[in-house]
Design goal:
This protein has 155 residues and is mainly α. It is 50% helix and 0% strand. It has helices at 11-14, 52-67, 74-87, 90-126, 134-139. The longest helix has 37 residues, at 90-126. The protein is elongated and about 55 Å long. The protein binds a DNA duplex (15 and 15 nucleotides) through residues 2, 4-5, 8, 10-12, 14-15, 21-23, 25-31, 33, 35, 47-54, 56-58, 61, 72-83, 85-86, 100, 104, 107.
Amino acid sequence: MKGAKGKGATKRDALKPVDDKKVGKKKAVGKGKAKGGKAEKDPNKPKRPPSAFFVFLEEFRVTFKKENPNIKAVSAVGKAGGEKWKSMSASEKAPFEAKAAKRKSEYEKQMNAYNNKQDDDADEESDKSKSEVDEESGQENADVDDDEDDDEDDD
DNA sequence: GCCATGATTGTTTCC
DNA sequence: GGAAACAATCATGGC
């Protein structure tokens, strides 16, 4: 029953029209595969930060695999994760949203550096002699206190 | 052998 | 403002 999303009612639901599966798009270009040949965008461009749902999914995958070592299909994890996500209360989602917010902050910084580099890159065209090492040091680690606040450990 | 797909929701980005 | 693309994951199938 792929129509499971009946409950969704999210925007994607509205655009799910044709498609059969993922709106006809999905990772076609994702993962930087750039299969089509075009796309290609910018390999240096920072990837989007995972949303609260994705942060939750990361942990959920581990739990799911433990309980279902036989099930390795990502679709199964996605479905189960989606259902549980909806069943979770705001309080339970809070820690995941906090992590997502933190990653988003880092993403913004990376985007800032990326945009800065883009502008610099344009200038570099006239002065391509210099190497782009400074941007590398620009992003450095950005690790900050990292996550590690999984105090929710249910069970 | 390698890339796309499958499913989920949220966020971001572009027009 | 809305619509579309993309973020992770991994086994599997198709070319």
